[in-house]
Specification:
- By secondary structure, the protein is α/β, with parallel strands linked by helices.
- Helix content is about 55%, strand content about 15%.
- β1, α1 and β2 form a beta-alpha-beta unit.
- The longest helix has 29 residues.
- It is globular.
- The N and C termini lie far apart (about 55 Å).
- The mean pLDDT is about 95.
Length: about 290
């Protein structure tokens, strides 16, 4: 299929993750039209050859497949209400937003009344990993709908799991984020102790990677912590939102999460110290400087 034959893809929400998704689509020669309520977010889309939509309605008029990358599922619900008012039957909405499983099911039900397909396709990995094609997509939705969009999804990543019906992607993303966040906090505490006890940090990281202590957080966040380079790939405040949703899911299922309870408190300390807009690796600063 050549470039002219490829359908236009709409992207609503062109922040860190949304911009990386746009990059992957443009690399695959898809025409992309994006919309974001924050106009400054759209400069990068223009830079890579994308088109800017002035509204959700304009975007829907040009794209029959729409990806969402929004702050939370409350925003997704609001945007999908707008989509439902102007989209035609057969439109496909793929939501990469980290939100609640219940919201995903409700959105799918509401869009389904207009014969609009919906899948929650949550993503594990930072924006830089997604840009490199290294994100992991967990897709909840009808099997037939998933198969119809599989070729498009493979342009975003080679690691794609169909994990069940709508809501399953959102549920599994919270479980994955629980583990990722705690791995990152453990790395931060380990490096803080290494520094406090006079161990060379690059050496400590190298040794940690070579032992059973290894986690992928060491590859993605180790150097950022050592260099104290907290330029955002995924914002700390966003992960605090995720932890709230994780604990909410646990409460609904009567499951205690003592480590996540402690993690939430550490993240609150970071946000109160003004670190919320920085990369989530900035939790290292909380532990290193004994802010907690």
């Amino acid at each position: 299929m050549n470039k002219k034959e490829k359908q236009t893809i709409g992207v609503i929400g062109v922040g860190l993750l949304g911009s990386s998704i746009c990059f992957r689509l443009r690399e695959a020669d898809y025409p992309v039209i994006g919309f974001d309520s924050r106009s400054e977010q759209l400069d990068y889309l223009v830079h890579i050859g994308g088109q800017v939509g002035s509204s959700v309605k304009e975007l829907v008029s040009q794209a029959k497949v729409i990806l969402l990358s929004l702050p939370d599922s409350t925003v997704s619900s609001s945007v999908c209400e707008q989509i439902a008012k102007c989209a035609t039957a057969g439109t496909v909405v793929i939501d990469t937003t980290t939100g609640t499983p219940d919201d995903a099911v409700e959105i799918a039900t509401n869009l389904g009344r207009q014969k609009i397909q919906f899948m929650d396709a949550t993503v594990a990995g930072s924006s830089s990993q997604v840009k490199a094609g290294e994100g992991v997509f967990m897709v909840g939705g009808d099997t037939e709908h998933f198969q119809q969009q599989q070729a498009l999804l493979k342009e975003l990543s080679n690691v794609i799991f169909h994990v069940g019906p709508v809501g399953s992607g959102a549920r599994l993303k919270l479980i994955v984020n629980l583990a990722i966040g705690l791995h990152r906090a453990v790395l931060a505490e380990s490096l803080a102790l290494a520094e406090a006890s006079g161990v060379d940090l690059p050496t400590a990281l190298q040794v940690l990677k070579a032992t059973p202590a290894y986690s992928a957080a060491m590859d993605t966040k180790g150097e950022k912590m050592i260099q104290q380079d907290f330029s955002p790939q995924a914002r700390l405040r966003q992960h605090r939102k995720d932890v709230r949703l994780i604990r909410q899911l646990a409460a609904q299922n009567e499951q205690s999460l003592p480590l996540s309870d402690i993690h939430a408190k550490l993240l609150d300390v970071a946000i109160n110290a003004g670190l919320g807009e920085l990369d989530n690796s900035a939790i290292y600063q909380v532990l290193r400087d004994n802010l907690s």
